[in-house]
## 1
Amino acid sequence: MNPANFYALVGIGLFSIGLFALIMNDHLLRKILAINIMGSGVFLILVALGKRAENIPADPVPHAMVITGIVVAVSATALALTLMLRVAAETGQAILPDEGEK
Amino acid sequence: MQNAFIAFPWAVALILLPLAGAIFCFLFPRLNRTLGLMTSFGIGVAVVGLGWQLQEHGIYRHAVSGWGAPLGIELYADGLSLLMLATTALVGFAISVYSTAYFNPTLSIRFWPIWLCLLAALNALFLSADIFNLYVTLELLGLSAVALTALTGSKEALSGGMRYLLATLLASLAYLLGVALLYHNFGSVDITLLAQQIHASPATWAALGLMGAGLMLKTAIFPLHFWLPPAHGSAPAPVSALLSALVIKASFYILLRLWFTLFEPIIESETINSLLGLLGCAAIIWGSVQAMRQTRLKLLIAYSTVAQIGYLFLVFPLATSMGSTAWSGAAYIIISHALAKSAMFLSAGNLLTFGGHDRISDLDRVVQRLPLTAAAFGLAGVSIMGLPPSGGFIGKWLLLEAAMIQQRWDLVAVMILGGLLAAAYIFKVIGRTFTQAPVTHEAQSVSATMQWSALLLAIGAILLGFLALPVLSLLNISDPTITSGVGL
C-alpha cells in the first residue's frame, strides 16, 4: 500500500469516528468536535489523493480546496460554539431537547 | 444603450450586489432598511438583465477574472438557473418589503446583513457550474440560514437553529467527501467536463451516495426531515418564509442538476430512482398527516413543506431527461411552492402579530378583522392543494400526466391522496378563521405593508397558473450538449 492510500484510509477512518461520535453523544460540544474530526478526515483524504506519482509534484488543486474548506470549517465552528453558549445560557445545559418532544 | 444593457455582466452583479449590500448594512446600521430594499430591488433588475441575455444568446457562461474551467471558476446560467434566480428575486423582494415592517430596530440591525448574505449565497449557488463551488455556496447558505433561524434568541429558536446547524454541517461534509472522490477519479470539478468522462465504478457510486445523502438531508426529504419543523416553526415569520420557499429548494436544485446532467450516464438501473420516488411518496403522506395533527399554525405550515418536498422527489422515477414533462412539472412546483409557502408563512406572521399566538383553535374572527391576510392564506392554500387555476395545479398536473403516461398508478394515487390531505389541513385553519374563539383577545394592529406583501405573493402563486407557457419556454433554454450528446 502506498502512503497516499494509507492516508486516505486514515481519513475515511476519521470521518467514520466523527460520524459515530456525532450521533452517539448528547453534549453539544462533543457534537461540534465530532463534526470537526469528520472535516479533518475529509481534508486528509483530499490532500492525500492529491499525490499523483513519485517524481511528479502533488496536484495543487486539492490543496486549494482544503484551504477553502478550513476557512469554512473555522467559521462554522465559531457559529456553532456561539450558538451552543447561547443554548446553554437559555436552557442551563448544552444539550438539545428530545426530538420526540412537542 | 441597449447594447450596453445586454453586454453588462448581470450574473456577476447578482452575486456582488447583495454581498456589497450586506457589508454596507453592517457598516451603516441606521440605513439598513433603505439599503436592504434597494439591494433587493437591484437583484430584480439584474435578473431581468440576465434573462434578456439568455433570450438573446442562449445559455450564459462567464469565466471569473478570465480564468475558465477546468482551473478557474465559471459562472453558468441556463433556463433552470434563470427561473430559480427569478423566483429568489421575486420572493426575496416580497420578504424584504415585509421585513421592513416586521422587525423592531434591534432585530432589524441583525437581520439585514445576514439576509443579504443569504441572497448572495443563493444567487451564487444558482450560477455555479462546478461541484466544489456549489459546496462553498451551500456552506454560505447554511451558515446564514442558521444565523437567521436563531435571530430572536428565544429558547426554541436557539435549539432549532442548533439542530439545523448540525444537520447542515453533516450534510455538507458528506457532499464534500463525494466531491473529493469525483475529483480524484476524473480530475475535474466542472459539471460539464465531469459528465463527459464519468463512468460507473465503486468510487463513483460512493460519491453519488454521499452527495445524494447530503443533499437529501439538506432538502429535508422524509425521513431526513427531523430538523425542519423545529427550525422553520420557531424562526421569525419572514425567516421561516425564506427557509421554506428558497433555502431547501437550493439543495434540491443541486440534486436535480447532479442527477440529470452529472450522474445521468451511470444511473441506468431503476432501483435508485424508485427508492427516491418511494421516499417522496412517504414524505407526502407523512408530512400531510403530521400537518393535520398540529395545533400551532407555523408547525402546520412547516409539515406542509415536508409534504410538498415529497412531490419534488417524484420527478426521479418519472422524468427521463431534462425538459421532459415530469421535469418541467417539478420545476413548476418549485416556483409555485416558493410563492405559496412564503405567502403562508407571512400570513402566519401577521396572525402572530395580530393575536400574539399561533394556536389554530384560538384564531378569532380573522376573516372580518384581517381580511387581506385571510385572503392571502386562502389563495396560497389553493396553490398548495393544487386546485386550478394556480401554479401548484400546473406543476402537479404535469407530474400526474407523466405518471399516467407511464402507467405508474401508485404514484397517481399518492399524488391525489396528497392533494386531499392538503385540503384537509388547510380547511382546518380556514374554518377557524371565520368563527369566534372561546377566548377572545386584544388584537394588535398589523401594518398594511405586511398584509399586502403576503397577499401579493399569494396572488402571484395563483397567476402562475395562467403563465405556464412563457415560464416553460424560459425553462427550456438549456445546453444542447448536455441534453443530447454527452450521455450517449
## 2
Amino acid sequence: MLKKILRELRAIRGRAYVRMVSIRRDLLLLPFQVILPVLAVAAYIYLYRFIGAPPEYGTLVLIGGVMTTYWLNVLWSMASQLYWERMMGNLQIYFLVPSSRMSILLGMAIGGMYMTSIRALSTLIVGLVIFRLPIVLKNPMVAILLFFLSLSALYGMGMLLSSVFLVWGREAWHLSSLFQEPIYLLSGFYFPVKSLGAGLATIASLIPVTLALDGMRQILIPGGEKLGFLPVWISILILAVMALVFPYLAYYGLNYMERLAKKEGRITTRWQ
Amino acid sequence: MAIDFSSLPAYLRKFTLSLWAGWKITSNWTEPLLFMVYLIVKPLSSVLILIVMFYVITGKFTGEQLLFIFIGNAFFSIIRSGISSVWVITEDREWFETIKPIFISPGSYLSHILGRTSAEFLFSTFSSFILLLAGFFILKLPLGINLHLLLSTIILTLIIASILALLFCSVALFVGRGGEFLVEGASGFLYLFSGIIFPPSTLPTFLRIIAEANPITHLTNLFRASLKVSAIPQVEFWKFYLLSLIILGVSYFIFNRALKLALKTGMLDQKMGH
C-alpha cells in the first residue's frame, strides 16, 4: 500500500516538475508572459477610462486579467493536454506508466498552478504599479480560502475536461478556442457578472472562474460588495463542493474515456 | 465542380491550393454551416463583452463612444489575420510536419504563406461583415457606406495585413515555443496602440505618440469614415499607398533573407516540440 502511495506521489512530482522547471528554462519568455496579459488588461482599463468609469473598474479588469491566465492554462494546458500528448505521440507512454492517470493529471494541475501563479502574481503587481489602481485586502483569510478553493475547483474542472478531450480529434483545438471569448463574456472577466442578469449569472456560476471573480472582486475592490452577484460565503461553499465533485467526476470520466479511446483506437491516432 | 489547377502557373497554383487548405484547416473539414457558427460566436462574444462594459457604465446601448468601440473592434479582427500567419509556420513545422514537402513543391513558400493568410483574411472580413450587420440591424447603429473609401481602405488593409504576415513569419521561422507569445503580444500591442476601442487621446502623452505614429490607427479611422460614422481623416491617400507599398517591398526582402538564413542554419524544419 505504502509502495503504491509513494509511486503515485512520484508520478505527481514527476509531472509537476516538468511544468515547474519550464519557468526556469524559458526565462527569456518570462517577461513576455508577464507583459502580454498586461497589454490586454491595459486596453480594457483605458476603455473604461474612455467611457468615464470610476477607477475601481480598473481593478476589476486587472483581477479579470489575472484570472484569464489561469483560465487559459486550464483550457490549453490541462483540458487539452492529453490531446496535445496524443498529437506528439506521447500519450501511449502515459498509459504505460505504472501509476494512475489521476496522479498524472494532479501533477499537471499542481505544476500548472505554480507556473501560472508566478505569471499571474507578476501581472497583478505590474498592473497595480503601472495603473495605480485602488485595492484593499478586507479579509486576508477569506481571500486565501477563496483563492485556493477557486484554483482547486478550476483545475478539477480542467481534469474533467481532459477526459473529454482525450477522445476528441481535431475539433479539440476549435473547442478550446471557442471556450475563450464566450466564457470571458459569460463569466464576466471584464465586468461584474451580475450585469448579465440573475438568470445568465446563475448559469455562469457553474463555471468556477465566475464565482472566483465575483468573490475576489468583493474582497479586493474598495466598495466591491455592490459589484457582487452572490455573497462571498456562498461562493466559497459552492467552490468547495466543485473542488470535490470535479476531480471525482474526472476519475470516472477518464476511465470511461480511456476505455472508449482504446476500443476505437484513438490513443495513437494523430492529426484526426 | 472540379477546378483544373494544373493549368495555373506554379506560384498561383500553390497560392490557390494553400487558400483552399487554409479554409479546410481552419474550418476543421467540417460542415460549412457549423463552421460559420464558430466564425460568428467568437467575434460576437468579444464585441458583446465591450457592449456590456459600455452598458455597465453608461446604462445605454447607443452613443458615439459605442459606435467608435464597435467599429474599431470589428475592424481589428481583419488586422489580426495578418499576425495570425505566424501559425502557418508553427503548423507546417511543428504540427502537421509538412514544411519540407511544401517547401520543395513547385512555387515559392511565400505563395503558400500568402495563400493561408488570405484565407484568414477572408474569414476575418466575413466575421467583421456579420458584426457590422448585427450592429446595424440589432443595435440600430447609424452606419452608412462610402463605397469608394471603403474599397480603398480594404485594399490598404490587405497590404498592411500582408506586411504583418511577412514580418511576423520572418520572426516565426526562428522561434519555436514563442510563436504563441508572438501572436498574443503583437495582437495586444496593436489592440492597445491602434485606436481600436478608445482614441489615442485617452493614453498618457508618451504612449499617445506611439498610437498616433502607428499607421493602423489611421487605417482604423479610415474604416470608421468609410462607414460614415466619422469625418474623413486628413490623410493623403497616394502617400499612404506609396508608403505601404514601399514597406511591403522591404518586408518581402526581409522575409526572403530570413528564409535563406533559416535554411542555412537548419532552423526551417527544426522541430522544437510544445
